[in-house]
Amino acid sequence: MNILGVSALYHDSAACLVRDGEIVAAAQEERFSRKKHDARLPRHAIGWCLDAAGVKPGTLDAVVFYDKPLTKFIRLLATYAQVAPRGLRAFTMGVPAWLRDKAWVGFQLERTLRQLGHPRPERVLFSEHHLSHAASAFYPSPFHDAAVITVDGVGEWCTTGIFVGEGRTLTMLFEQRFPHSIGMLYSAFTYFTGFKVNSGEYKLMGLAPYGEPRYADIIRRELIDLREDGSFRLNLRYFGYLDDLRMTNDAFSDLFGGPPRAPESAITRREMDLAASVQLVTNEAMLRMARYARAVTGKRHLCLAGGVALNCVANGRIVREGIFDDIWIQPAAGDAGGAIGAALHAWHEVLGHERVVAKPDGMKGALLGPRFTSEQTEQFLTLNSLPYRRMTRAERDAYLARQLASEKVIGLMQGPVEFGPRALGYRSILADARSRKMQSHINLATKFREGFRPFAPIVLAEDAHEYFEVVHDSPYMLLIDQVRAERCTDDANGRDRDIVEWVNTPRSDIPAVTHVDYSARIQTVDSVRHPEVHMLLREFKALTGYGILINTSFNVRSEPIVCTPEDAYRCFMRTGIDTLAIDDFVLEKAEQPALMGDTDWQREFGLD
Length: 608
Fold this sequence. Notes:
Blueprint: E1 2-7, E2 14-19, E3 22-28, H1 29-33, H2 43-52, E4 62-65, H3 69-83, H4 88-100, H5 105-115, E5 123-126, H6 129-138, E6 145-151, E7 158-166, E8 169-177, H7 182-192, H8 201-207, H9 216-223, E9 224-226, E10 232-234, H10 250-255, H11 269-297, E11 301-305, H12 312-321, E12 326-329, H13 338-350, H14 374-383, E13 389-390, H15 393-405, E14 410-413, E15 427-432, H16 438-446, E16 456-460, H17 464-467, E17 479-482, H18 499-503, E18 519-525, H19 531-544, E19 548-553, H20 565-573, E20 579-582, E21 585-588, H21 601-604
Parallel strand pairs: 1-4, 4-5, 6-11, 11-12, 14-20, 16-18
Antiparallel strand pairs: 1-2, 2-3, 6-7, 7-8, 9-10, 13-21, 14-15, 15-19, 16-19, 17-18, 20-21
């Protein structure tokens, strides 16, 4: 039985094909359209999933949308009515868009399938937003039973959910409803500190270690009433998202000493301290929810999903507190992962099929997207007269290890595209974590992004304990831990220095991945989930004694992670990447001609 799951029309639209309970293919629309966080109905992703899974016309049994648009529309109307006559501008902009687009999702899905040559399936279903999140976390997890927490901005009405998963069933035990939302609180500070809502939250998280949480008491006193069981209420007089097109209002500005930071302007001590403060409060909220979920479910394991589950700092705190024996987080915890959850919920709950627990998990390392054959890659390189060398995999890994050890920056494209926001070594930029210059060099010359942004370490799972205190299993780069004290050097009075100087001050023997608070966002690599990366890391360790590298996504600021060989080559040529490896094909920057013109390569392989 073939079930197509779809998430769309807000941000990070995606599609997933589940066959007999197994995730066969999943992809985000942005990878094809090259529009970051593309929210449109994912026509390209749907078409690719159906083709990749070999679904022939007439054999698609169900299509499932990840939430209920009509329920969400009712929530919007109720909100506008509650704040009227304020909010007229937001009403006149929001409602026509709904009536034009989002209210007709079922018809749009049927039309898209017809355009792709597939008749309407027997079942067109609509899940609920937080149920899709919960299903995306529990069903692919390695646990037979678990507590499940979902936290985001808002679904239909729900903003936080606590579920219990047992076998094939998911039961909601607790629901926090809009307009009270941890996701909205965090996004309000994202907006106020000058970053873009729904994409800049990770920047706010990365900025937090530079600050002191001197506004935390104000947040607790004025903005949020946080209770011991993790439930909460926001003081809505400080927020603009109910009746305006802004996240915060003038009262919020008065509370924090002035208007929001203008985007791209200099970051001041206020923004650093605001980031530290809201991160501390978010940690507290997530810890209380976790303790409550453990108490009411009695389960030893925890699953997490929803946009706030991408907050690695809060996730790391839950692990360090030891509230649960083990934790598993959906790698595409945001809206994209809702496509997976919607399809799996339909298979297990709606259609009643029993669950088979996969080990190490059911996400297949998140390697669920398009991959390209050697013939396709070689055709692209030859068509454009690009000089390259083809190597065996062992030769390639040895060569890349030597390049990395000599402080070269590597662009690596191999195997399938990762599903979710993290590059996991298959569409990654890699560099030597021991290098003192790499933090600044990659941020400014390769990624073209803010210089304060930290980089994640990618480390052999068997060696993680040598570098980090607690986290020894983090395959999807969703946990923060502290670098072991014996590897660190004293970095006193960092806050008295310029932020660029501070971030580039070595504070451990792996300085390029040690943040200013001695933390790191870790990806551990084992030979089961990510065998190709494991082999490369072992080669680097044999050469240097260190089984650890920098891993950052293969893209530049404001662009999606690369998908095709052409995407990878363009990024390679426009950045400070020294060497590009596309599977077993290796290209050196110094040998390349001027940047090639447009080609029909993507169209030729059905990716236009």
